[in-house]
Design goal:
2 domains; 60s Ribosomal Protein L30, Chain: A; 429 residues; 8-stranded mixed beta sheet; alpha+beta; 16 helices; 49% helix
């Protein structure tokens, strides 16, 4: 037993526990059912629930009883598909209460109520050849263990290169500021055509630099949950949450409404914060030329009754997307940020590689590439908050859940290399 405990305390033991947690995740993939909103036909609703029940049975898994982390990855093929957040609302409801006639022994499928969802990620690609609904679910406690390990993995691999790269991207903000401040001499030196081209590139790079810094990274997310457990970091989780809740790179929209009639006031707060954010950063983000995802961190007021605790998806669908998307002109796919007419003139061969219809259906243009929401535990005597980041999303970077897995995978690869070549491990010390 002592040897086993010693092993579990090693990096190899941490890796083994992660693999055990990963095998316990639920993965559901459903082809040939078009992701749809509440207008989904009764037949398709039944087919979706039957497919979920069948795959849960095959995996010998039952209904989650406690908190979960959930990811939806959707692909639509319909010529006029609904927006991702309306699809998600429908599917989240269908993953709960079972329809009569579905072959499943319980009244609920994946979970009893979507209030169990403590972390949610939704991504949707429109205009695909075939529809698909991908679902990944895991206990939220396991997610926190993964988050803690990912933070350790990132620190183990940390180099100064990442900081230099971040500094280089941030420099574009200053470059763009100088370019618009000194427009007259710059135009004279470069000529109108070259100046406009350079200004366009600089705006894109400045937006990438600004919005690339607006989201939380894995270590900060870990610290906001009070991880790593039992190891003091010098700054407690409440302070980290307050720093995120005060960042000028994010939209800070205050506490969620918990009293009757509070929704209107909260929507106005969202609108006011959008206006303030635009005023602060309009010189860079208007027009928005990069695709963005939404990253939302929520901490409820400790006095919030359980009966009025907001579901994570409802926060995004009801309060955030309706104001943010039109205000910023956000698009649902990075392909909408490419001027294909210009590309056909400048590089016909490259333009041709995108095909004759490179953009998704026109009705899907307005939106965000994905959204993810994380709920922090309420803190006694501390106010709640909703903090929103528009995160630059043009490099095919995964959501935070995906970044965790990638960081741990890279860390495991290094462990394997060290075990195969122990002299490398000795040299690093």
């Amino acid at each position: 037993m002592t040897d086993f405990k010693s092993f579990m305390a090693t990096d190899a033991g941490a890796s083994a526990r992660y693999e055990q947690r990963r095998r316990r995740r639920i993965h559901i993939s459903i082809d040939d059912i078009e992701p749809q909103s509440k207008k989904m036909s009764p037949a398709d609703r039944a087919a979706f629930q039957s497919a979920v029940a069948e795959q849960l049975s095959e995996a010998k898994r039952g209904t989650f009883r406690s908190g979960i982390a959930l990811k939806l990855e959707l692909a639509t093929s319909n010529k006029s598909p609904p927006h991702a957040h309306t699809i998600a609302k429908n599917l989240l409801d269908l993953l709960g209460k079972r329809i009569d006639g579905i072959d499943w022994p319980k009244k609920s499928l994946l979970y009893f109520d979507d209030s169990q969802i403590q972390a949610l990620s939704v991504m949707c690609r429109h205009g695909e050849d075939r529809p698909n609904i991908g679902i990944e679910a895991r206990p939220f406690a396991a997610m926190l263990d993964d988050l803690e390990l990912a933070t350790k993995a990132i620190h183990a691999a940390e180099t100064m290169d990442a900081y230099y790269e971040e500094d280089r991207e941030s420099e574009w903000i200053d470059t763009f500021r100088d370019l618009i401040r000194d427009e007259a001499p710059s135009r004279k030196a470069l000529g109108d055509e070259l100046y406009e081209a350079y200004r366009k590139m600089a705006r894109w790079s400045a937006q990438r630099g600004l919005l690339g810094r607006s989201g939380v990274n894995i270590p900060v997310l870990s610290w906001m949950y009070g991880l790593p457990k039992g190891i003091p970091t010098g700054v407690d989780k409440t302070t980290w949450a307050s720093l995120i809740g005060e960042s000028k790179l994010r939209l800070q929209v205050g506490e969620l409404p918990i009293a009757t009639g509070g929704s209107s006031a909260f929507r106005q707060k969202v609108a006011d914060e959008i206006a303030a954010f635009k005023k602060r950063w309009d010189w860079i983000i208007n027009p928005l030329v990069v695709a963005v995802a939404l990253e939302v961190v929520v901490r409820p007021n400790p006095k919030t009754p359980a009966s009025v605790l907001h579901d994570l998806d409802n926060i995004v669908r009801d309060y955030l997307i309706p104001g943010i998307v039109p205000a910023f002109g956000a698009v649902s796919d990075h392909r909408w940020t490419i001027d294909f007419d210009e590309l056909r003139t400048r590089d016909p061969k490259l333009a041709m590689s995108w095909g004759p219809n490179p953009t998704p259906p026109a009705g899907t243009k307005n939106g965000v590439t994905r959204y993810e929401v994380w709920r922090l535990p309420a803190v006694e005597n501390e106010p709640g908050f909703v903090s929103v980041a528009l995160v630059a999303d043009m490099d095919a970077r995964p959501d935070l859940m995906g970044q965790m897995d990638q960081s741990i995978h890279d860390w495991q690869e290094n462990l394997t290399e060290d075990s195969d070549r122990p002299w490398r491990r000795r040299r690093r010390r």
